[in-house]
Amino acid sequence: MPPPALPFTKHPHYRRRLLIITTIAALLGIGLITRLAWLQIYEAPRYAFLAQGNRVRLIPIAPTRGLILDRNGRVLAENVPTYELTLIPDQVKNLKQTLMQLKPIVNLSPQDIEDFHRLEKTKRPFQAIPLKVDLTTRELARFAVNRQNFPGIDIHATLKRFYPPGTAAAEVVGYVGLISPADLRRLDPAQYGASSHVGITGVEWEYEKLLHGRVGYRKVEVNAEGRTVRVLQTRPPVPGETLYLTIDDRLQKIASRALGQYPGAVVAIQPGTGAVLCLVTSPSYNPNLFVNGISAKAYHRLITAPAHPLVNRAIHGQYAPGSTIKPFLGLAALEDGILRPQTKFYAGATFKLPNDSYIWRDWNPHQNGEVTLKQAIIQSIDTFFYQLAQRMGIKRMHTALARFGFGVSPGIDLPGARKGVNPSARWKMQILGKPWYEGDTINSGIGQGYTLVTPLQLASATAALAIQGLRYRPHVLAATINPKTGKRVPYRPIALPPIQLRSRSYWAYIIQAMHEVIESPYGTGHLLAKGLNFSMAGKTGTAQVTSTYRNDFAANSRVPFKLRNNALFIAFAPVKHPEIAVAVIVEHGGSGGRAAAPIARDIISAWLQQHPPVEKHVSHPH
Amino acid sequence: MFRTRIDRPLLIALLLLGLGGLVLLFSASGGNWQLVFRQGIRLSLGLILLFALAMTPPRYFRMASPALYLLALLLLVAVLIFGARGKGAERWINLGLFQFQPAELMKLALPLALAWYFHEHPGAPRWDEVLAATLIVALPAALIVVEPDLGTGILVIGAGAAVLFLSGIKPRYLFGFALLLAATLPLAWHFLHGYQRQRLLIFLDPQRDPLGAGYHIIQSKIAIGSGALFGQGFLKGSQAQLNFLPERTTDFIFSVFAEQFGLIGSLALLALYAFIIGRGFILAARAHTRYGRLAAAGIVSTFTLYVVVNVGMVIGVVPVVGVPLPLVSYGGTSIVTVLAGFGILMGIAAHRRLIDA
Where exactly are the structural domains of chain B? Predict the structure, then answer.
């Protein structure tokens, strides 16, 4: 059969148009192929890299924080296991009911549940969310027996920082706290990827780098939901260094017990190394409260306590040194030739400047007679030092005190140390905008007026005096130990510029005077001499808090507590080969000889018992 | 009789694609046998339909075309009223055993209906006939777009345009259409859903929302690009196997393939499609009747658009509009209607051969 005549007239251009459509399709196909080739050849390396980035995740592993030990290896900060209850939403069928059932078992508070719901929103359903931290052993046990009823809920062990001495070493060790957004800005995000805590103050802050260690990583393959498919590679974290401190935990306890109710501070330093043996502030606080975030109530209590327990008085508190400044000024007067060892001044009950009506009084209203510098130190005669100051002038006094580190930052390896005030005419003009008056010089002569020192500075200066001008930067770090290799790196004491005098006999003279402060029956520290089985040199101080009550008899109950004098005492022992120098400040303690000196003696005694001195009690010829 | 009615090269190519699609589906679904099995059932169903339609004389198609079109239109209205919701759109009708997408049916019914119309009105279409044809296209297209299913809507319009073009429409009408399109584009933008606009914007710059609207296309390009020349190997594509690639058994199955088999594999797959399309156009060119020509060319054009839009979409040259890769993407209605279309094509071609013989 022949093909029928095709009605092409009724269907114009069909084949041509079909060809056009086919051509368009072919062109589109070529376009697609070009694009595919571009993606799969030219851009392939980039996309291979992106695919790898999709697939592989680095999961940081937190290093274990280094331990902090005292000089004898007693633990000051450690990591203790703590148990938290975690919940994986994916595996819990009825969340509401489960939480209700858990409530009586682990004492879930509404706050816990609220925190949980907040965290729940930020995590993926297969990730464990902490439900309650710090489970007690009782809660732990109760949950353990009911465990089979709670699929998807688990006990997760983590490490928590713990400070066994509690309040006794908080001022040195400090504490760690949860990392805040502000901390994140200064910390290396790579190193802290897995860490939850960071040092906030004290050694924990100062040696954060050593204590933290180095972060480890787990390289894992993940799927699109972020669920780990398999572990590709693991690099374990490097734990932080163990820190040995120069602090003696026992001395810390003795000092804080001795201070008792009184606000105050005690600092003991080893002359010849600058090692801080004890550094105590009172009242103190329990650093364990801060570790997992302190409650608002507890924090409010600490902040509003009248004695300011969060202030580290030992390095941050600035006090008028009172008469404890006298040995240093006396030494400077000898060196500068203001007087000689035998030079006598008349010292009465009062002192007046020419052309000035103001009367400066001695603490002893019966003071009367010609005295040498030595006697003036032993009996702490103010009217002698008024004259000494008048002759020296503030410029010389400023220079001499600066050499002992007063008014200078102590450079201790603890945060928050202040530098006190070593006044001068220029200082007064700069800070107060007023000219220096001669009366200011007279006040400075007995450690009053503008002079302010921290207990640390006082102890450090005393240590320098004890070993005739050799100075070391005070420090609390004794050694670091690598927990893996056991390698011990001792801290090397840093020598500061020594104080050199024209004659070494000046040192001996002042030290002898300070020895007699205790030994001489006229000495203001004679109270300590009884039963003392080692030689000790010291100087009392009673610093005025207000001008009204400045005398040694002010420490009685008729004076309001806040207005009572601060009691100070500096000491070192043994006199010949000093092993410990101490500064004690008891706020509103009254007389230095009575309130502060016994504390210094107890500390020195405890230290020397542990480290028996070469020389026994030797009485020095007068 | 059987041998003469079935176009063997086309059938072999379709079988190759269908079976290859099942293997790919196995990989893309992460070894989900159940999914592969269900798709296999649909493939078989489609093939049975293909054979049945290939046996049918084309005049029956012609006679049934208006009815099929009306049925599809009715179903489109029904889906708007009773439709099951899937990802924010009403596209399915639940038929108990499986869900049915009327829009997919319309993709087949529309070219047939247009072919029927022009068959009834021979010669170069006059302006009133062009208007009527435009209405035949616009009505279902509008229904599909408001579902909303922009991709299928565009495909339906594209298929309609192809048939209109082949009907011998005068160039000035074509020019008029182009002008009209340019004028209505801003208006169309106004009527788009928020997510549809978002998709178009994302197409221009996927990085503007890499974890949201841009995620699909970024991950798809990563999968295809990391496949490189030779691919990562069967079942070894990290993008697909670790679930980074979304919609990987349906719209983005080409990315799975390109990741595992590389450029070489992609070219082979496209060549297979090119063969099917080329063979389809050859059969269309040989058709005798006006109905047969327009229906055949319309079916092949629709199929071509499917492939171009889907592949263009996953490689980032066409906005993500939700169009499956024909015969490979998981989804029942599409595979059955596509195979039915090729059955009709074979039927039309066979008719001519029978006349020739």
Answer: 2-71+102-356
